[in-house]
Amino acid sequence: MDMEIKGKSAIVTGGASGLGEATVRMLLDEGAAGVVILDKDIHGTGEKVASELGDKVVFVKGDVVDEEAAQKAVDEALKLGKLYIVVNCAGVGTAKKVVGKDGTPVSLDFFKEVVDTNLTGTFNVIRLAAPHMMANDPVGEDGERGVIINVASIAAFEGQIGQVAYSASKGGVVAMTIQLAREFAPNGIRVMTIAPGIFDTPMLQALPDKVKESLGKQVPFPPRLGKPPEFAALCKHIIENVVLNGYTIRLDGAIRMSAR
């Protein structure tokens, strides 16, 4: 038997909305012992989501790059059960050109902030969760002790103009996937990454419907924006399929982004 979600504790960063929220709901539907949401909650939905989903969900408001907040998420997850699942959905997608229209170079702080959240924050949660996963009882015939799913982006491969910081951060997530999988293999912990294409998440919901429709039509098939439950469905399969390890899966309807 491969890894089962039922009875396992999980952490979902960025779980207050979008892809993360859909993943939280999927985990609960599949019988998780409990899920901790770690989220900066810029949309103000964290408490609402946790309240709606009941006492199996704990909301921790904080930044993934904050060691104290990430440690609190781990501690809360351990109160709910043994921590077997981590899904790192938290991220920012702000775009800026390296040199602005007025010839001014982009601030170094901007680049650092994006890389900090998307790459350093992902690593921060992994490094704090991994020791507890290593101490788990092995499950299934292969002796698994945990599954870590990170979220990159197709921008890691085809970053558009203005996405230099975003592409670099997500490329880093892709690059560390195989290394982490190799390091944790002796402990029975798998590491996978999903690189979503264009999904209907809060990042896009501020756009006019015509713009979102136009973006969706760029996708070869299906010619629409991805739906968060479709992302969550892939997370479920990764968790349950023991041979998925050390790889990045594009979830993008075959789109290949143009330069602009």
Automatic annotation (TrEMBL):
Coiled coil: none annotated. It comes from the Archaea. SUPFAM superfamilies: NAD(P)-binding Rossmann-fold domains (SSF51735). InterPro entries: KR_dom, NAD(P)-bd_dom_sf, Sc_DH/Rdtase_CS, SDR_fam. Keywords: Oxidoreductase. One of its GO terms (molecular function) is oxidoreductase activity. The keyword Nucleotide-binding does not apply. Residues 8-197 form the Ketoreductase domain. Belongs to the short-chain dehydrogenases/reductases (SDR) family. This is 3-hydroxyacyl-CoA dehydrogenase. The lineage of its organism: Archaea, Methanobacteriati, Methanobacteriota, Stenosarchaea group, Methanomicrobia.
